[in-house]
Amino acid sequence: MAVQAVDLKPSPYGQPLFPSHSHLLTEEEATPGIPAEEYERRRRALMNSLPNNSLVLCIAGEIKYMSGRAYKFRQSSDFWYLTGFEQPNAAVVLKSDPSSERGYHMTMFCAENDPETEKWDGARISFEDVVRYFGADDARPSYELARFLHSLTTTAEHVYVDLPRSRRRSWRVDAEASLDFLRNAKHRSTPEGLLKMLDTSRTRPLAPEVGRLRAIKSAHEQRVMRAAADISADAHTRVMRFTIPNMPEYEIAAHFEYLCARAGAQRPAYVPVVASGANARIIHYTANNQLVRDGELVLIDAGCEYNGYASDITRTFPVSGKFSEPQKALYSAVLAAQKQLVKLCSAASGLSLAQLHSTSCDLLRKELVNAGIPNAPMRLSELYPHYIGHHVGIDLHESTYIDRHEPLKAGMVVTVEPGVYVPPSDSYPAYFHNIGIRIEDEVLVGETEPIVLSAHAPKEIVDVEGVCQGLLDIEPL
Length: 477
Fold this sequence. Notes:
By secondary structure, the chain is of the alpha+beta class. The chain has helices at 36-49, 77-83, 115-121, 127-134, 145-153, 172-183, 189-198, 207-214, 219-242, 249-262, 325-343, 353-371, 380-383, 461-468, and strands at 29-31, 34-35, 54-59, 65-66, 69-70, 91-96, 104-110, 138-141, 158-160, 203-204, 267-268, 273-276, 297-302, 304-306, 309-310, 313-318, 413-416, 419-421, 436-438, 441-444, 451-452. The strands form seven sheets. It has a six-stranded mixed β-sheet, sandwiched between helices. β14 (304-306) and β15 (309-310) form a beta hairpin. α9 crosses α10 (249-262) and α11 runs antiparallel to α12.
């Protein structure tokens, strides 16, 4: 039955859906840009990849608090990938079901409607609408989860869930959230027994299974990621024009985030790096609290999150609008290497991310020697201390469960970000001291050719200088 779009204020759904937010998504979409059918395909692909008689438990994120106030909520990535459901303190259980046409049964658990709570925090979606919009076979209150699982885990041969022992360090927060969710459920004796029961030889980590699916982006995901990259690329371009000598780094960071938010981005993908002068030698410089000085370079590593997907772009530009000769020499070296590396991001190349990194080292050794650092081959680990890139998608870094030695496949999205950071050492010419340069693009791996999602952010010297000097009709606001 067709759903009519009306101006529902406030929305009764707890997140954007077509009836209340037709300006953001279509009737077929569960989240902006991603159809409900795609979430169904993801769940089916997951269950088809698991052994028969498997059970999956995936837990939503929790609200985080700062000084008594809640941060803007961001859903747990795997849970969002499988459901599109954006409300906290929820869970989904998928159980193999050969009698079902789709091969599994899906039960969602979420908070009940509570008029008093909703008066303060906004609407909670009804169980009926959870079934209607998110593909669940049935929906139940959160406090029933422990008892429900107890009835299923006694018969399931394989239980996929994230417990602390099965997760790597970077996934620990989600694992602890999973346990807290169970512990805080009603009927407290049951969850404790359940946790003990789950910690058996039948229990397996869920994150690696979902991570392998997330590595390859669908056509819908690619379109959303291109839009996210376009928003960030436009912000990078305008910030180049906006920046002037003696401006605080934090003002530049704030302007970047403002431009992204104005274009529809929901949040920054990460804390932006706005590093002027020697600060650019600090790879993850996020203090952003000094003044940019005339004659310095500014390195900006920043991106937005748009409709669930991160963007990640780095550009380096001259505050004065023109590179000095030493700056130009090093920038040209990094740019030449970066462009060659981007060309290798195809399935046809047969390269892995590890091989791409090795190639980046070879290229930078040669380019830096040509730029005027003859000892670069022996000191490259000091000049170029980080890896060439990482997978990106719903999370900024999606490499946790993707082997760096696995060949790149069409549909993967990776960053390509060589850099050079020259310390004030007698080992290097003085005119290169304290110069830090990184150039990072988001690249969609194609079968035979790469697609640079961040192509709209200038990186050629003539274009960067033209934008900074106001020669290309780019408005700073």
